[in-house]
Amino acid sequence: MTQRPHAKTRHFITTAWLGIYLLLNLFVANNCELAQHRLAFSLASLSLPFFFLSCGRFVACLFSLPLTAIVVVNLYIIIHYHKITYDICMAIAGTDSADAANMLRTIPITSFLLAGLLLGGVLYATARAARFRPLYALFGLIGCALTFTIALHRPLNRDIAGHYNVAITYDSVHRHYINSPYFAKNLAFYVNLPGFIGTSLATLALNQGYQQAKAYRHSLTFTPHEHINSALLPGRVVGEKNIILIIGESDAARHHGLYGYTEQDTTPHLRTLAARGALCAISNAHSAASMTHNAVPMMISFLTPQNRRAILTEKNLIELARAHGYKTLWVGSHEGTSLYNSPIGYLSNFSEQVVRPDYSTLPLSVREHDDESLLPVLQHQLEIYRQEAAGHFIIIHLIGSHVSYQEKTTPEDRRALPHAGSYDQAIHHVDHLIATILHMVEQTLPHSTLLYSADHGEILTSPDNGMHGVYDGGQEQYRIPIYFAGLHHAAYCQQAEALRQTDGTFSQLMEKYILLTMMGYQLAPEALHAARQQDLILHSDGETYDYNRLPGPKAP
């Protein structure tokens, strides 16, 4: 009789443990955008805790550690991004150690303390609830096997799977880029195992995906693609001698002075250049995606929200520049072989000369996530190009104002804006980088035109923290600054005005047509007219939306 109160307590703790597990898994499942069978799987997944709670205290506590960590991570993503999309799983899977460290630094210490308290509570409850019951453990194991087998053999919606049928990744063993269907294959974890189990297994599978990809190996070469986009007409006119494209990162237009920002003087150099007529800004401009691995390829290739295979089938801007006699250079502080950056690495390798942190065709090097290290490389190459008769197409890919912001600043930025948050200080540093590059170009390649465009915007949650890729974040994470400078810059700002969408915005998708004009290509008026009729976005959930019908608020 003395055991009965303890037995009742244990039964209560066990019931509460399983109930909380079920509610949390169902909560996460309901915040997975493409997930199916949410309630059915959440109920069936109870076989997992039922299994390890029957394996004895030590094994149960051992299992509860990673399970709790998975729950905490999923809850944090939902709190931070409001939804867990498959693209977010891809982003997490593709994050390298440097990016992960930067992201961890942005998480408040209170979050870690709460996670520690939760872990302690789970370990205590697990130790009280767990008992060694071999028969129950066997039933739980059989239930797990049946649940996962049935779930993973459910057919995927073809439309959903089709969104991920372009899977550029880097085979680090054979050292070449490949295209494989494993993005769509691993989608089954996310869709059919909804909740923190599905998202975690999908992320893990994506992270290890290149191992699976070897079974479907289709090596991607850097020989020119055969097809030319239908917007290009035969023949050519005289283009600009030198074209420089600077790609920014996580750069919100509303924090630039030329876009109306008055709280801090974040862009003094750009303001000065505009005042003397050496630079113009495109108002009401937005990106075509809110995540780098989607946005940058749209700037360099004919990939669009509606045609994602164009990156593999049509000549990109680097190929088209080379076809018109330009020498090409890609220099950037992003590496190009991780899961997340592979599409960017693949495109950059079409350039004759490439300098990335992980790869260089020149006896020069840059440091990852260090834009200052790009400047000596650029200066060195510009001095060489000064002596050449050929024109040049140069792409400079910055880490810019990506989190963590403080690491993207220098003492000079902090002294210039001592009372500003680190994001504004990072924008101040981007302003310095653009001005420095412009000065280099003016001194070495005076017959040049420059375009600066961010890959996407940023949503600031505080002066020192922010995010993008938020499902219901609305338009703010898409609003970007676009600047033209150098020779004939005013003419290209006028062209941008003529290429606005019918809703009055300027889409990042139209930048390629301006760059092609700079290269001397002639464009079909009917193709430009058709491109202006729709204002489409590839959103963080993998779906295509009209810019004015995005989930969340419109930008101010």
Question: Characteristics of this structure?
Answer:
cell membrane, 3-stranded antiparallel beta sheet, alpha/beta, Phosphoethanolamine transferase, Alkaline Phosphatase, subunit A, membrane, transferase activity, 19 strands, 556 residues, elongated, PEA_transferase, single chain
* CATH domain fold name of the largest domain: Alkaline Phosphatase, subunit A
CATH class of the largest domain: Alpha Beta
Major beta sheet summary: 8 strands, mixed
What structural class should be given to the helix and strand makeup? alpha/beta
Please name the fourth-level CATH homologous superfamily of the largest domain: Alkaline Phosphatase, subunit A
Structure description:
This protein is an alpha/beta fold and 556 residues long. The protein folds into 2 domains: 4-155, no CATH class; 240-549, Alkaline Phosphatase, subunit A, CATH 3.40.720.10. Helices cover 46% and strands 13% of the residues. The chain is built from 23 helices and 19 strands. An 8-stranded mixed β-sheet has the order 6-15-12-5-11-8-9-10, sandwiched between helices. Strands 1-2-3 form a 3-stranded antiparallel β-sheet. It is elongated. Residues 241-482 form the Sulfatase N-terminal domain. This is Phosphoethanolamine transferase. One of its GO terms (molecular function) is transferase activity.
What's the arrangement of secondary structure elements?
Layout: H1 4-30, H2 38-44, H3 47-52, H4 57-81, H5 86-93, H6 97-105, H7 109-129, H8 134-152, H9 158-162, E1 168-171, E2 176-179, H10 182-192, H11 196-207, H12 209-213, E3 219-220, E4 232-236, E5 242-248, H13 268-275, E6 279-281, E7 285-286, H14 292-300, H15 310-313, H16 317-323, E8 327-332, H17 342-348, E9 353-356, E10 359-360, H18 374-385, E11 392-397, H19 411-416, H20 422-444, E12 448-454, E13 459-462, E14 465-467, E15 482-486, H21 489-498, E16 506-507, H22 511-518, E17 521-523, H23 525-533, E18 536-538, E19 544-546
Parallel strand pairs: 5-11, 5-12, 7-16, 8-9, 8-11
Antiparallel strand pairs: 1-2, 2-3, 4-17, 6-15, 9-10, 12-15, 13-14, 18-19
Helix pairs in contact: 1-2, 1-7, 4-7, 5-11, 10-11, 14-17, 18-20
Transmembrane segments: 12-29, 35-53, 60-79, 107-127, 134-152
Keywords: Cell membrane, Membrane, Transferase, Transmembrane, Transmembrane helix
Membrane topology: Multi-pass membrane protein
